[in-house]
User: What shape does this take?
Amino acid sequence: MFEVSNQPPPLEPYNLFTSDIVLREAAVREGASAKSLTAMGQVFGAPETIALGFAANQNPPQLKSFDRFGHRIDEVEFHPAWHDLLRIACSFGLHSHPWAEPKPGAHVARAAGTYMLTQIESGVYCPIAMTYGSVPTLRQSPEVAEPWLRAIFNAAHDPRSVPVGEKNGALIGMGMTENQGGSDLRTNTTRAEPAGDGSFRLTGHKWFLSAPMCDAFLVLAQSVKGPSCFLLPRWTPEEKRNAVQINRLKDKLGNKSNASSEVEFNGAYAQLIGEEGRGIATIIEMAGYTRLDCAIGSSGLMRQALAQAVHHARHRTAFQKKLIDQPLMTNVLADLALECEAATVLTMRLARAYDERHEISTVFRRVVTPAAKFWICKRAPFVTLEAMEVLGGSGYIEESILPRLYREAPVNSIWEGSGNVMCLDVLRAIERTPKAAEVLRHELEAVRDARLKAFAERLQGRLAAADRHDESQARVLVRDLVLALQAALLIKHAPPAVADAFCASRLAGEGGGAFGTLPRGLDLRALAERAGPLN
Ligand SMILES: Cc1cc2nc3c(=O)[nH]c(=O)nc-3n(C[C@H](O)[C@H](O)[C@H](O)COP(=O)(O)OP(=O)(O)OC[C@H]3O[C@@H](n4cnc5c(N)ncnc54)[C@H](O)[C@@H]3O)c2cc1C
Assistant: This one.
């Protein structure tokens, strides 16, 4: 038997909050309190919690269409680890706290909490995000919302498939995408007919309906007045299973612990939410929050990948040096850390805009949410890939968690509005939101720095010019907008080594193409060190 040597110790237990300097600084700066986040970080980094993430992914959900007697039940069975993880997430109120107990910094605290959750298990983040995002939309019809909000605001996960009146907790999903079109929601074909008692009956299908064991879904369907938003519960008021048939579960690249289904509605009971015929605007309010969650989720994935990479490189020796001390590896880690920090500071800043009620914040979140979703989610697959390589062959092995992170990484970019759709949305927001250009200019001009000034002036010029109306240039503009905002935050708040490296590589173009291409003359060591130690 050979002697095991030169292997890092497992990265557990560790506190995901206190060991993450960047998250700690950003969350507290933007208004969250460190106390409850420290407690959360401890729970998420406990070996038992980490094991739940692995178990939930190794035992994906199974569709159970019928019971043993042949009755249709359309249930999905999840592994107990899935429910345990949801119990933890709900106990911290990650699905509803900012609504149930509103206070300054609540959305930032929740963002920091979900940033940690996604590092341990991303699949459960899906129903948590949808439930969080559903509340403002539900509130557009207070009477319909009342029993649901009561259950949602309970900090508990109740997995029982029973009517809402019996539930100690509730989760809400979302059904917009149909087979013939997901981005272009006007092509939705699901029909909604009034039932004569104020409710509607829905007939049609949804091509993607994730977490189908949620207790109800916000669904888009065509009424006589046009696309409208409905709440479709799993149980009818008569306490019968609603007429929703789960045709199959998707066989997905990643996000294995979570189920995503194809469903048919066969005259399913539903209640109107918001104004009839204005369903896209109604349900898009929910999408604003879930898009924020995509940016948080991808930032968290990048952090977990970086944490694993730095931890490995601190312990593994090759060619007589710890990997972290090999100059080229220092560059790779520094570059990954830079990407991760830029994503984290922007995400937490954006979450603050959801806490604030003034006009500038409303404008900021309208423009920056799709922009951040686009760029941060686009970066995550590259970061997880490079972090995997830091671990060498072991990074390619499931036990390392890196394959799971890598498979998970693309989904945030695709769902809730894919990359192009996000970029076009940013252009639309700048065009249609009064003061958008002014708010962005103010955000960038508040930072006095020559490097940012030149970059921001070029960006402002292009935003004011024909480029803004040229859809083919939307990705370039949105990328540069995000880079400028990230640079402004790093110059203002991060150590000079971080800001210098970001400006050189991301604004001045010295580097790029692959991680580990930061130019000479930067304090790379300081950047790599900032990401750890972890335990
Ligand atoms: C794991 C997973 C879970 C999901 N869960 C849900 C769910 O719970 N509920 C739900 O409703 N949906 C869900 N979706 C669906 C997802 O939101 C859609 O797939 C997504 O919005 C894109 O829609 P589509 O697949 O129809 O692609 P399409 O709309 O056909 O778009 C294809 C591509 O074309 C691009 N494109 C579209 N219009 C333009 C344009 N004008 N200019 C340039 N490019 C354009 C898009 O950016 C995209 O890259 C899920 C998807 C995945 C992968």
The CA atoms of residues 92 and 426 lie 32 Å apart. The longest strand covers residues 260-273. The chain has a mean pLDDT of 97. Residues 173-177, 181-184, 208-210, 252, 255, 260, 411, 414-421 surround flavin-adenine dinucleotide (CB under 6 Å).
